[in-house]
Amino acid sequence: MTVSETFDSAPDQAPSRTWTTERVEALKNHLGAGLTCAQIACEIGVTRNAVIGKISRLGLAGPRRAAPGMPGQPAAPRIKRRVIVLRRILRTMQAEPPFSADAAAIECTARCSLLELANGNCRWPTGDPGAENFAFCGNPAVEGLSYCAGHARIAYRPPARRRA
To answer: What is the pTM of this model?
Structure first.
């Protein structure tokens, strides 16, 4: 028995083939007409994932559509832009005077609990999470980062080979 056979019939009957030649032809016609995989699945009587798999196995999957944006220009990935912005922020912070890498040396003036933590607050945990005095730093965070300047210097250190 092959993977393409299914047991949707009664146990005493022979299994029926899911992808008959008629269904494959219907799949090709519907795909050519521009229907979505979900619409094709409803028309043919199989699952959407079965349609996607068959399209892939037949090599009918076309090129992926470009993200909507300016015609003729590829859309720049958001992640890449965020990485560039973060690198710029971190480079600026690293250019500041030398700093103690000890987290205890940073004064957390606005300590707060998880429920009090808001956007724009430093999310650096202080203390033991199981202890009663556990809190977060709460100092104003550097714009674009999750930590204040002091904790960001600890969290985002340059690689050792570039420090020397």
So the answer is: 0.41
